[in-house]
Amino acid sequence: MTYFATKSGQELVQELQKKIQTFDNNIQTSGILDELRDSYSTFYGDSKVRRVGSQGELVKIQINHYSSLVRNLVSLVTNNRPAWSPISANSDADSQSASILASGLLDYYMKEHRLERVFKNATLAATFLKEAFVTVTWDVTKGEIVHPGDEQNLPLHEGDLDFRLYLLNDVIRDVNKLDSSLDWCITREWKNRFEIASQFPEYAEQIISIQEESLDKFRINISQESNNNKFNKVDNDLIPFYTFYYKKSAILPNGRQVNFVKDIVLTDSPLAYSKIPLVKISSEDKFDSCFSHSPMLDILPLQKGINALASSILSNNQAFGVQNIWSKKGNGLTVSQLAGGLNLIESEEMPQPLQLTASSSETYKFLEMLVQQSQLISGINDAIRGQTSAGQSGAALALLSQQAIQFANGLQQSYVSLVEDV
Prior knowledge:
By secondary structure, this protein is α+β, with helices and mostly antiparallel strands. 40% of the residues lie in helices and 18% in strands. A 5-stranded antiparallel β-sheet has the order 7-8-9-10-11. Strands 6-3-12 form a 3-stranded antiparallel β-sheet, with helices on one face. Strand 4 (145-147) and strand 5 form a beta hairpin.
């Protein structure tokens, strides 16, 4: 029996397509994709106050503590900007000069390639979408043109490093693995078919004619609006661009790296890096699983409870906020007599206002408890959110802040590892 990674050309791509289908089916049937979509829609929320119910009698509102707590945690972890201090292995002059050059290069990439933004976005994604990945690869199409090319050859560029962020659903791997280590993986990226065709003119016609049923089945961002406006097969220029990596091992001493779209092999070469150029960030690994876990997802049910209670209170106040008047039948009052102000009203009995807006005190207490429990589970306390109580000393506030930092230790260590590895 031939191992899939050692197969050639079309046979390999057919095996990889099976791996992709298996992975996509797994995250769909296991509920992972639904959980990610739930977290995504809750995090970005709904800025509208909506009418719901069979007759629009209820009002729906979202008070997004979930998003606030996630952003507070990310800010806590990424607040300090990375400071480089390259150390040479040797003490000779050339090695010392190389250290200085390395420091300058790191500052250049942080500024010109917005690496700090990549790090923060990866940390944010790992916080509410379980995990995130950053690839560091060499892009031959970047940089200045050093040779103009001709009719047979494309222009030759200097090349430069390329940094890309991938979410859980776009890093295909062996779902049967019981840990997060990777022998192989496939990254999925949505690229313009015409750009790909220009880079690989020998396959241009096949690439441009590729048809995808729908992008939705792979996406985390699924909203009602996107369901009502499906991607148009004709007008959509994006197609999935896959890169297969296999690490250097006894099976493949030189590793393997394959770029392909659909069933078209674009490049097939030994792995160009010392290891798979994929760096993961997550709060913690999930035991007996190839996926990670984020404690922030434990707050999702509490956020739904907060939204439900807030919507109940708002529905009650919206429905009965305008004052209603009660009087005995035959009292002689009319609506026109009660309209406006400064009216002289005569009646046999004094009309009584109806107070229907008062919600149960338990509703408000439970709403407050859900907010407190969300902070407790996330480790983000009042001091971090800027809601200090009167009389608290500076030392007490510093202690609370330090406790929050300690709680985020797992994510912080992963963030440091991400920065160092990239």
